[in-house]
Amino acid sequence: MKDLFLKQGYFKVQKLINPYEVKQLQELYNNLLEDETKTEGLRSDLAGGDSNTERITQIMRPSMNEPKLLQTNTYELVTTIVKDLLGPDMELDFDMLINKAPHTDTPTPWHQDAAYWIKMPDKRSVSCWIALDNVYEANGCMWFIPKGNDQVLPHKPSAKGGALCCETNVDNAECIPLDEGGCTFHDGFTFHYSKGNSTNTQRRALILNFRPKDMISLEREQGVDHTGERKVRNK
Ligand SMILES: O=C(O)CCC(=O)C(=O)O
């Protein structure tokens, strides 16, 4: 797994968590998704624009609202794997939920997570994308392109207030269907994307993002805590 991660920038784990824990996470997830008051200010539509219906619901820092998430085996297990991959100083920077509701048909555009970052001397990072439903092409499973180097291409917003996107060659893109409880790990330079959800059911993903402890401190000093607007801007 580590070799794959270092070589191509991503890998999948077909079964990370057991059905009991999947159920527990689904319940906590649904409570947050349904509670617009609790999640106000942390919630946005990655599709951007001014539609009244959320097409790609993103809720930042869900464990701030629902600390039970932090006590699950999942958070502990993923942290252990990430430390094995990139070193013992890797820590959870932030978590997020991304849900694609039935028939919202909105792709998450191709991007590299590094396009969202502030300037950081240590660029190690890992994102673990956990499927809380069976995911496949038609409901928006993840796609990745094996990475060549650690360069970040120019990105722009896909719509007003929407996710960042870039243009890249997608000939080698790999589609990663997973059963619920499976996951992928990717680094910040790896291009990824998902199609829209054209099915009758939700596509729920819980995502845990890790980086070195010192870099998390640097982010926080600069006002980046992943709750939304930066409190302090780079000069
Ligand atoms: O869930 C998605 O559609 C996109 C997820 C993503 O971009 C990420 O986890 O970095």
UniProtKB/TrEMBL annotation:
Keywords of this entry: Dioxygenase, Oxidoreductase
Q: Which InterPro entries match?
A: Phytyl_CoA_dOase-like
A single Gene Ontology molecular function, please?
Answer: dioxygenase activity
Gene3D superfamilies in the record: q2cbj1_9rhob like domain
Q: Which Pfam families match?
A: PhyH
Instruction: Specify whether Aminoacyl-tRNA synthetase is a keyword of the entry.
Output: no
PANTHER family registered for this protein in UniProt: PHYTANOYL-COA DIOXYGENASE DOMAIN CONTAINING 1, PHYTANOYL-COA HYDROXYLASE
Protein name (Swiss-Prot/TrEMBL): Phytanoyl-CoA dioxygenase family protein
